[in-house]
Amino acid sequence: MKYNNEHFEEVITPNVNKPGCESIEFYIQNENGYKALEKALKMKPAEVVDEVKKSNLRGRGGAGFPTGMKWSFMPANPVDANGNPKPKYLVCNADEGEPGTFKDRLIFTKTPHRMIEGMIIAGHAIGSNKGFIYIRGEWFKEARLMKKALDDAYAKGFLGKNILGSGFNYDLVIYLGAGAYICGEETALLNSLEGKRGEPRLKPPFPAQVGAYGMPSCVNNVETFAAVPYIIDKGWEKYAKMGTERSGGTRLLGVSGHVNKPGVYELPMNLSLLDVIEVAGGVKGGKLKAVIPGGASAPMLRADECGVLTDYDSLAKAGTMAGSGGVIVMNDTVNIVEATYTLLKFYEHESCGQCSQCREGSHWLARMFKRILDGGGTQDDLDYIAKICGNMAGQTICAFADAVTGPALSSVRKFRGEFDEMIMKGGLKGVGKEESISHKMVGAHV
Amino acid sequence: MLSEKIKNTINGIRHQFPTEQALLLPLLHEIQNDQGWVSRESMKDAAEFLNLPVSKVREVASFYTMYKLEPQGKVDVQICTNISCWLNGADKLVACASKKLGVHAGETTADGKFTLSQVECLAACGTAPAMMMNEDYYENLTEESLLKLLDQAKADLDSGKVVGKSTRKDGVWP
Ligand SMILES: Cc1cc2nc3c(=O)[nH]c(=O)nc-3n(C[C@H](O)[C@H](O)[C@H](O)COP(=O)(O)O)c2cc1C
Ligand code: SF4
Ligand code: FES
């Protein structure tokens, strides 16, 4: 496919299919590796922040917050009550757990040094000497690969004391979660990183004031960091030009579900969802029915809405979100009530339970969808679903509750006919389908 | 009692963290690996080692799903049934594994060798359907390849081999 974007080039993944691409030697020899660090260390921290601001890099973790701005929120010289300087921490969010999202895992396994280099540059920019890489607990192998990459970076003098003779010291430490989706939320992550229950914190204070271990902290996603070396190396302008007015660069989209060639694709943002599906080999096993464009929490779109472009603003205008870049494609053999239940069951299990609206709401939404599937649903249920969602969105400690309403509300709004039919005909059986085995075995979820 | 090996591993990373409590998650991972679950006894040991109240350890251990509060089979077969895997036939895999092992999801075989679990998205959606056996990922599964893997795992267990921990190096964290 022709991308119709003269500025586009792969920022993060140009070599991820080459053998040995994960090694530090490969990165140095073939990808100009750690040259951006050398350059950044000769710049003033504020200049680095400025460069990133102008590049229009937005956070790739889900919320799309402008990265340079986030870095500029870090206090310059924080001190404790006794006037002693406080350390500042940088934290990498590698908890990748949003259903349908698998791009950070590619970076971890194929181009870890890009992320490491990005973190060291960010550390210099915000005046931090230590960073933590918080990795989801299931990634034993990935964590070990990252550990090896860190060891190699230390051995070559890119980490540790007096990096490249600049006088700048930087350490990176690995931490493993232990199986809790909510730890991807940045304040839950900070609690988890402190060895506590991964429960989101009330904000304010924001992490830039009180973050990890009570110190000013800045949390960014894996892909966000991995974009930084390019910006410093090639300059903000080149990066900004590839993107749209308010969002620079490329995006890693993980396309999965019913496509012929699922995988992670690095693409310019001026492609439509239909283009993206075409890049991923087209729809398999039937005709296109629905797409979730940004991980499970993004409201779904009907096939006829998929002409929308994949940049942050266009997707927001279409009532959904760019989110985590997980594009989940469903063909017309899928029953939407059932597919949505698959997600709601997940949220029911993963709510941390601190807020009653979220804990109860997630539970009731899952139960109501199940009732409809089992043939006991009524038209009133559909109104009730909307009501529960109204009570959840924007009412809680963290954005998890909003996330739950994404699939719940959009499914009913956009595929109302399917709900009506199922309610009228007595559930899944009535529409000639069998119950999913994985839906039957309740209480089996980790 | 915590083994010396575990103590050494945790002591080896102590300097990396500003607080003792930060070591709790790594420690519980090591206990889980060593014992196959986190017993009340182990929680007490962990509390003592890190100078934490037992209640704090319990509260943390029970929050995270990877710490098992009951004994598990030697191999935890964890099949992802979230959306992308579900769209790509995860259901069939669960049925197939369930039939092969003779247990439902959430149960352990009578011989204590296998636990069958359904898990949430493993971030392997592009190579769905996916599962983990203990620490290792297996992707692009079919019923056929799943059955083969289960047979192999059983044969390995019977010959005294460790299953599903191909990248683990003892004494090194992670
Ligand atoms: C429920 C929930 C789950 C999240 N999961 C992740 C995650 O797995 N990875 C991630 O990078 N951000 C996740 N986020 C977003 C983080 O809170 C945070 O915005 C992000 O790490 C900031 O990095 P960025 O600015 O580079 O995007 C999640 C947010 C919420 C509310
Ligand atoms: S919104 Fe849900 S997940 Fe977030 S803090 Fe409240 S209960 Fe926990
Ligand atoms: S849905 Fe199974 S790995 Fe993501």
What is the helical fraction of chain B, as a range of percent? 40-55%
Largest sheet of chain A: 5 strands, mixed
Radius of gyration of chain A: 22 Å
Low-confidence stretches of chain A: none
Q: Major sheet of chain B, described briefly?
A: 5 strands, mixed
How far apart are the termini of chain B? 21 Å
Query: Helix content range of the residues of chain A, please?
Result: 40-55%
**Quaternary organisation of the protein chains:** heterodimer
General form of chain B:
elongated
Largest Cβ-defined interface: A-B, 66 and 58 residues
Task: Give a written overview of the molecule.
The complex is a heterodimer of chains A (about 450) and B (about 170). Chain A is of the alpha/beta class. Chain A contains 19 helices and nine strands. In chain A, the strands form two sheets. Chain A has a five-stranded mixed sheet with strand order 6-5-9-7-8, with helices on both faces. In chain A, strands 3-2-1-4 form a four-stranded parallel sheet, sandwiched between helices. In chain A, α2 packs parallel to α6. The longest helix of chain A is centred in the C-terminal third of the chain and has 19 residues, at about 355-375. The radius of gyration of chain A is 22 Å and the shape is globular. The mean pLDDT of chain A is about 95. Chain B is of the alpha+beta class and about 170 residues long. Chain B has seven helices and five strands. A five-stranded mixed sheet of chain B has the order 2-3-1-4-5, covered by helices on one side. In chain B, a hairpin with a 2-residue loop joins β4 (about 130-135) and β5. Chain B is elongated, with a radius of gyration of 17 Å. The two termini of chain B are about 20 Å apart. Bound molecules: flavin mononucleotide (FMN), iron/sulfur cluster and FE2/S2 (inorganic) cluster (FES). FE2/S2 (inorganic) cluster binds next to α5 of chain B. Flavin mononucleotide (FMN) binds near residues 62, 96, 182 and 403 of chain A.
